[in-house]
Design goal:
8-stranded mixed beta sheet
Length: 205
């Protein structure tokens, strides 16, 4: 997970955001300002459509929206831009961890109302990183802000999973990336369900 990064106008987009049907978004790539803007735009369109349908159709069942995630993570501020929209959405957002879901992408996954993990999904949690440069006062300020950012992330993870502060602190002390898979993800409450054949009905809606 990283802080702000300078824009390179010639940079090739490092993400794909594809809309499948009326209620499913497939996100593959880095968590950046551009990728999250695309996802949020599609989410707002879907939420608006569902709210309008509910106004017009008697006994309308609003259902849910799906967000499939395959990402190594990226920017923390942009991560929160998506998470805040998901948490405040009047329509539940179901998340699906596919392939690799690391760092900021893992925190986005945890924001799902229902969270599916597949048999071979690889998930990873680690401490937020920064590349502080400049005067000592500026470096100290960045360091302090980083500590606050990490505390907010940890509080969010603890609130939405079975992970305890002690476990998160242990991971940070080792200064390593903590990789885990389906079984542990379900045990820790990071995922709520294993994706199975019967769940295609939830995904294709």
């Amino acid at each position: 997970m990283k802080g702000h990064k300078k824009k390179n106008m010639n940079e090739i987009p490092s993400f794909n955001v594809n809309v499948i049907g009326n209620r499913t978004i497939y996100f593959c790539g880095d968590v950046t300002e551009n990728s999250i803007a695309r996802i949020n735009t599609e989410l707002i369109k879907m939420i608006t459509m569902i709210i309008n349908q509910a106004k017009l159709i008697k006994d309308f069942e609003p259902g849910h929206i799906n967000l499939i995630i395959e990402s190594v993570g990226g920017s923390v501020p942009d991560m929160w831009a998506l998470i805040d929209l998901m948490i405040k959405s009047p329509i539940p957002i179901y998340t699906y961890a596919l392939g690799k879901v690391y760092s900021a992408a893992l925190i986005i996954f945890i924001a799902g109302s229902v969270r599916y993990v597949t048999s071979h999904t690889e998930l990873m949690y680690h401490e937020a990183s920064s590349s502080a440069r400049g005067k000592m006062s500026e470096i100290n300020e960045t360091t302090e802000n980083g500590k606050k950012t990490q505390q907010i992330i940890d509080d969010f993870v603890i609130h939405r999973t079975k992970l305890k502060k002690k476990k998160l602190d242990e991971i940070k002390k080792t200064k390593t990336n903590y990789f885990f898979y389906k079984k542990e993800a379900l045990e820790l409450g990071v995922a709520t369900n294993e994706f199975d054949m019967k769940d295609w009905a939830e995904l294709i809606c």
